[in-house]
Specification:
Elements (H helix, E strand, L loop, with lengths): L3 E3 L2 H11 L6 E3 H12 L16 E2 L4 E3 L5 E3 H4 L4 E7 L9 H16 L2 H4 L2 E7 L7 H10 L8 E4 L4 H11 L3 E5 L5 E7 L3 E4 L4 E6 L6 H14 L1 H4 L6
Parallel strand pairs: 6-7, 7-8
Antiparallel strand pairs: 1-2, 3-12, 4-5, 6-11, 9-10, 11-12
Length: 240
């Protein structure tokens, strides 16, 4: 295993709240170097609005639970804003997985809060892969930790059960596997490829980022492009 170091305090604290433990999440040095290189090449990104992000798929209707335990439809939660959607879980110990997405969302959110174009048009959504442990009560801790009225909304959702979220995961192409020990017992770890979906205000996925391309700069540049394309439609208002 490569030498580890703390990824960021911002990534550690919310996940500690999620698991009710003081977990010190770490990131390998190699992904960090890749991220640094991506930041260094931000000047090479095309100007926002000078390119088109094609429609990939619609976000399906999926009944989930919010932090208050209310039933909500995912398609409604992503409507009316440029949305970055990711699937994570609180007990994730893969340093190159969920904590990376968390840190990138935090950085992108902070930058977007200072941009008139994105402050009222961007939304962040995390859906848990682990409904049994990431309950609405746990999500409330998470939302409280990330509460910031001046920043774009950050929404945390979960399901009633694994079976409840399975159709959504299939529809979004988010494959997962439950790790088992030598005796066949589940360890609690969920194997999944980190993906983040960028969604337009009409509910169409316009980009899917894997670890190699998931950086705050790429995410924000594409979000600006969609915000420019849908500026009149969103009308500068935040949707629930």
């Amino acid at each position: 295993m490569t030498e580890k170091r703390k990824y960021s305090e911002g990534a550690r604290a919310p996940f500690a709240a999620l698991t009710a433990m003081a977990l010190a999440f770490a990131a390998p040095s190699t992904p960090m170097r890749a991220a640094d290189a991506a930041h260094a090449s931000v000047a090479n990104l095309p100007s926002p609005g000078t390119y088109v992000l094609q429609r990939i798929q619609r976000v399906p209707s999926a009944k989930l639970l919010d932090a208050e335990g209310r039933s909500v439809d995912l398609s409604a939660k992503v409507a009316g804003a440029v949305t970055a959607l990711g699937f994570i879980y609180g007990h994730c110990e893969d340093a190159a997985g969920c904590p990376v997405a968390w840190s990138i969302f935090e950085e992108a959110r902070k930058a977007a809060a200072a941009e008139p174009l994105l402050a009222d048009r961007l939304r962040l959504v995390f859906v848990s892969l682990d409904p049994a442990r990431d309950t609405p009560a746990v999500l409330r801790l998470l939302e409280a930790a990330e509460q910031d009225a001046a920043a774009p909304p950050w929404i945390f959702l979960t399901g009633k059960s694994e079976a409840d979220i399975a159709p959504l995961l299939r529809a979004m192409g988010q494959d997962i596997g439950y790790e088992r020990d030598a005796a066949g017992r589940r360890t609690g770890a969920i194997n999944h490829m980190l993906k983040v979906f960028l969604i337009d205000p009409e509910g169409w996925v316009r980009e899917i980022y894997s670890t190699a391309f998931l950086t705050p700069d790429n995410l924000l540049n594409d979000a600006r492009t969609l915000a420019l394309a849908f500026g009149a439609a969103s009308n500068g208002k935040r949707e629930p």
